[in-house]
Amino acid sequence: MKETNIVIPSQEIALKTIDMTVNYGKVEALHKTNLSFPKNQISALIGASGSGKSTFLRSLNRMNDKVATVNGQIIFDGININNPKINVYELRKHIGMVFQMPNPFAKSIYDNITYALRYHGVKDKQKLDEIVETSLKKAALWDQVKDDLAKSALDLSGGQQQRLCIARAIALKPEILLLDEPTSALDPISTAKFEETIMELKENYTIIMVTHNMQQAARSSDYTAFFHLGKVYEFDQSSNIFQNPQVELTQNYVEGRFG
Amino acid sequence: MKKTKIALLLILLLVPFLGACSHNKNQLTIVGSTALQPLAEEAGYQYGIKHNVTINVQGGGTGTGLSQVSEKAVNIGNSDLFAQQKQGIDSKKLLDYKVAVVGIAVITNSTSGVKNVTMDQLRNIFAGKITNWKQVGGKDLPIVLIHRSKGSGTRFTFEQDVMHGQPVAGGQEQDSNGSVQKIVAATPGAISYLAFAYANKKNLVKLEIDGVKPTKANVTNNNWKIWSYEHMYLNKKANNQLAKKFINYIESPKIQTSIIEELGYISIHQMKVSKDINGKVHQLKGE
Amino acid sequence: MNAKRIDKIARYAIQTMVAIVALILLALLSYILINGLPNASIDFIFKPSEAIKAGGGIRDQLFNSIYLLVLSMVISLPLALGAGIYLAEFAPNNWLTRLVKTLIEILSSLPSIVVGLFIYLLVVIKWQVGFSILSGAIALTVFNLPLLTSSIQNAFEAVDHKQLEAGLALGMSPWKTIKGVILPITVPSVVMAIILASGRIFGEAAALIYTSGQSAPRLDYGNLNPFSPTSPLNVMRPAETLAVHIWKLNTEGLTADSDAVSAAASAVLIIVVLLFNLMAHYLGNKLERKLTGKK
Amino acid sequence: MKAKAKNQLLKASKATKENVIGQVITFLCATIIVTLTLAIIFFVASRGIRAFVVDHISLGQFLTGSEWNPGTKNAQGQPIAGSLPMIIGSFGVTLLAALIATPFSLAIGIYMTEYASKRMRRLIQPMIELFTGVPSVVYGFTGLMVIVPITRKLFGGTGFGILPGALVLFVMILPTITSMVVDTLQRIPVSFRQAALALGATKWQSIYLIVLRASIPGILTAIIFGMARAFGEALAVQMVIGNSPLLPTNLVSPTATLTSQLTSQIGNTIMNSVENDALWALALVLLLMSLVFNLVAKWIGKRGELK
Q1: How large a percentage of chain D has pLDDT more than 70?
Q2: Which of A128, B30, C129, D218 is deepest in the core (most CB within 10 A)?
Q3: Which residue numbers delimit the ABC transporter domain (chain A) (predicted)?
Q4: What ipTM is given for this predicted complex?
């Protein structure tokens, strides 16, 4: 059994971190991490709560800026996006995010999707309608809401709201989608539908997902990273992680002995 | 589209503020005694229409009037007192115009059961030596003294003409004729003093002093002792051209007989006596 | 005394107390309306006031009250909105922000006469603005600011911070998210704050006596040029409001029917406040529905 | 990612500028309000201190003396300006009014958030707001015409004093306290109440033990705001307090409050005269008292915070 086992995927890399650390004040919540995420693949981040996986995820699109200090490099399409010169707002057009609790805007379904788009300069009504339709279709929500887009998003069910958040995120056509335990607040049926949706999204989005749900990670992800007490111990293809992990800690966790 | 709607709204709201830069010339600001305010307002309104001048009359009390006109903050300062009678005012800087005379009646609540008192009894009542109406022939009812607030001109005149230097007893102070009027009318055994114009409310009894009724005629010959001038003060150094015209207008017989009478003041021209700063009265040589 | 009985007693006690308050309000309102309404006819509202003769109306005073309310809102709402947002969203959570919040609370507890005299000495006298609507509006702004600012700040803090996160995640700046996403959600409570604030300043008299003055020059409502002294829109003219008029009638009023006019004016003032409340509620709900898309 | 998008990543965009402008504007608004408050406080303090520094009113005598006659001098040549009657008057009126108003506003608050149906709530809300619309002048004169005669009949004397003052103020501050209490109670999540009921608590127990306990800071701030409003009220109190700067012997002996003395005297005094400065000293006391109110509320609020 090895101490750590971090694999560099052979495919094209969409995003990678070099010696990235995250400190909340003096506490180093995340030790040096070097991970490379394959393009148009789903990578799952698993580990006990408080192991630093969400902290890691939130640093990728600079959501931790005010809260923590993130050192080291995050290379996205050849650029180190972990430096003050980067225009964070432009960056987040390329790296979308969906949160644990669904947080649609207190606006209509249509406005939820188009509000950020109009802000980023897409003004033409016809183009907006088109994007709304494609995004909702991709998020498998179109059939249920297509005849009442003016309805308030708050009237939707939890599952539908979360899929609306997905639609809203992909409407900006990001390269990478970050999902922070997206299904932990959803019922099993919506969770299953959600997993199908992201499997289809894989064709044109790189997805990095934090999850507590081991089966979910095994079923729907291509690569998986195991976090423990703020350190990444193993990162490999999901099949290897779940069938024969190289690191003893991963094995214990995967077989549910702790965590 | 939304942006233009908001911009339009903003302009619409800001238009009134443009008016802020206009500060037209023919305007007169008069501040001071609340007793003189109704006269100044009515005369100001009529003068304003005739000569297309805006006359703003504000109250604020004698003290405010005198201090503002000495600082040239306002054109005319209304006062119920001679400037010399007010501490902290440099009367040399001011021009005194007496525009009317105001008589001050002594009023009591109808329950007092008294119609006439002597000047000494009145003095002792306010000095706190007499405390029950039955001591002056009225009902057995404690006397409730109600003074005007310390700085008011009416109070100064009353205490100068009645108390002759004796201090008044403590008691309730009201700062306006209106509240004195209401409180005396409502409180059994209450006594206070009011300008004639305010004293003719139905449930108020106007006391006679030594058999003299508080009427305008008795004031002109000083039979009724409690009265004072209403002064309009100008600042010597200020440009008083418009203010002087307005004061002449008020002192003109036409106004002295119309508005002055209606509002319960006494016209300057009817006075047969004059009173100096320390309250001494002199016969006017045959008017 | 088991818990069940206590529960029932508590419920009845609360209901009786609410009934008592309702009775007090009804008694107060009926006292004012019964005295006031008989002579608050329509033409009473559209007649200029009289200094001496009876039968004066309150046309100019009513207009001044409303005009001053609108002007002071135009000044204080943006300021309060800005300050409220800054304190809720941008201000670092340190002692300075807490000090600012206490200062604003102190501003709200300042007696109106002190504020009136401050504006009088500073604006009316020192800046030579004179007795005018402008000075009155500035004085009223001082009353509006604390109530509006703290209500707006509370409203913004009450909004779930996940909305801000959602906006940021879509590449929107915090300012844009606050303006476009969070502000619409706070509209109802902001409207509520406006109602409370305007209710209070509509009845304010002490501060205006020394700022917007006690004289109401006759206005010519046809003339809308804000520069001429007789135009209602001119902000430099002194303007006695309804509340100040009521105060003057009861203190120095020589008009023959001053009691009747003051009672009628009080009745009109309360009815206007009631109308204002209902309209603001209606507006608040409509705005909320339009902005948040709820049907 | 296309090249154009890549270099956009590196330069400031409309969003960054807009965000900076937004922060600057809101910061400016906050500073304007703070400077305004500081200006007023400095103004009142400077005028108030003049009384002690320029006119040599002794602070001790000022706070403990019970005779208010700044025009005249005492043996040591200091103006007689004892503001104790006014301080007691102000506090008496405010505390009594708050004492009466608190239970009622709590009752309404609880009724509104716990018991009232939607229709009732729609009815009571404008009712409360209407109270704020009534001008203090009308409260004053209604008090003079209604409350004073009643207190005179019940308790004798002139009918003026702390009790009528407190009753008038009770009606005036009720809406302020009630609307803030309702606001605080509504902020308590429904889950708190459900948790209590789930444990078999009666409605009153859930209110008393959970809801009220959790909203103590809000309720206290509401009371403080109400008291601050009562403390600063001038015109209404002046009508019914009796305006005599004497120590109140009981609840119905005429006395004066800091504000009533200020409003009734300020007009007749000349700027920079002794009487005027003495009044500003009263205003300064008023200011300091409201400062104390706020700090006490903050301190209690913090201690009562949800642990």
Answers
A1: 98
A2: B30
A3: 15-254
A4: 0.81
pLDDT of the residue at A209: 93
Instruction: Write the CATH number for A207.
Output: 3.40.50.300
If interface means Cβ-Cβ distance under 8 Å, which residues of chain A face chain D?
77, 79, 81, 85-87, 89-91, 93-94, 119, 175
The CATH number of the structural domain formed by B103-220 is 3.40.190.10
Which subunits have 3 or more CB–CB pairs within 8 Å of chain B?
A: C, D
The verdict on a CB contact (< 8 Å) between A86 and D9 is: yes
Tally of domains within chain D: 2
Residue range C250-254: mean pLDDT, rounded:
73
Each domain of chain C, given as residue ranges in start order, spans 1-39, 42-292
- B287 versus C41: which is more confidently predicted? C41
For residues A77, A79, A83, A85, the Cα torsion angle rounded to the nearest 10 degrees is: -110
Six-digit token pair at D103?
């239970």
The residue range of the domain holding D230 is 86-303
Helix, strand or coil for residue A14?
strand
pLDDT at A43: 93
| pLDDT per residue as tens digits for the range C83-137 | 999 998 888 888 888 888 888 877 877 778 888 888 988 888 888 888 888 999 9
User: How many helices and strands (H and E) does chain A possess?
Assistant: 10, 12
* pLDDT tens per residue, range C12-32: 998 899 899 889 888 888 888
Helix-, strand-, coil-residue percentages of chain B, each rounded to 5: 40, 25, 35
Contact B56 C210 (CB under 8 A): no
Q: How far is CA C79 from CA A135, B7, C138, C202, D25, in A?
A: 40, 18, 12, 20, 9
Find out whether C64 and C213 touch, Cβ atoms under 8 Å: no
- The whole-number average pLDDT for the span B108-120 is 89
CATH (one of 3.40.30.10, 1.10.3210.10, 1.10.3720.10, 2.30.40.10) for C42-292: 1.10.3720.10
List the structure tokens of B247. Answer: 């004061």
Burial class (CB in 10 A: 0-12, 13-18, 19+), B92: exposed
Question: Cα-Cα-Cα-Cα dihedral of B256, B262, B263, B267, to 10°?
Answer: 30
Q: Which residues on neighbouring strands pair with residue A177, listed in sequence order?
A: A96, A207
CA dist., res. C175 & res. C179, Å (int): 6
Task: Name D296's Cβ contacts closer than 8 Å, sequence gap at least 6.
Answer: D224
Q: Kindly tell me if the per-residue pLDDT of A180 is higher than 60.
A: yes
Residues of chain C contacting D30 with CB distance shorter than 8 Å: 82-83, 86-87, 91, 100
CA dist D78 → B127, C44, D58, D108, D270 (Å):
25, 54, 7, 51, 19
Domain C-terminal end among D27, D57, D80? D80
pLDDT in tens, D71-85: 778 777 788 888 888
Query: In whole angstroms, what is the distance from residue C53 CA to residue C50 CA?
Result: 6
Residues D64 and D189 in one domain: no
Among C74, C214, C217, select the one facing B58 at the smallest CB separation.
C214
* Number of domains comprising chain A: 1
pLDDT at res. B49: 83
Answer yes or no: do B67 and D270 touch at CB < 8 A: yes
Dihedral in degrees, nearest 10, Cα atoms D183, D187, D191, D194: -20
Query: Looking at residue C253, what is its pLDDT?
Result: 67
Q: What is the mean pLDDT of chain A?
A: 89
Is the pTM above the cut of 0.95? no
Residue D91 CB-half CA count within 13 A: 12
Q: Could you tell me which chain C residue has the CA closest to the CA of A178?
A: C169
Domain presence at residue A83: yes
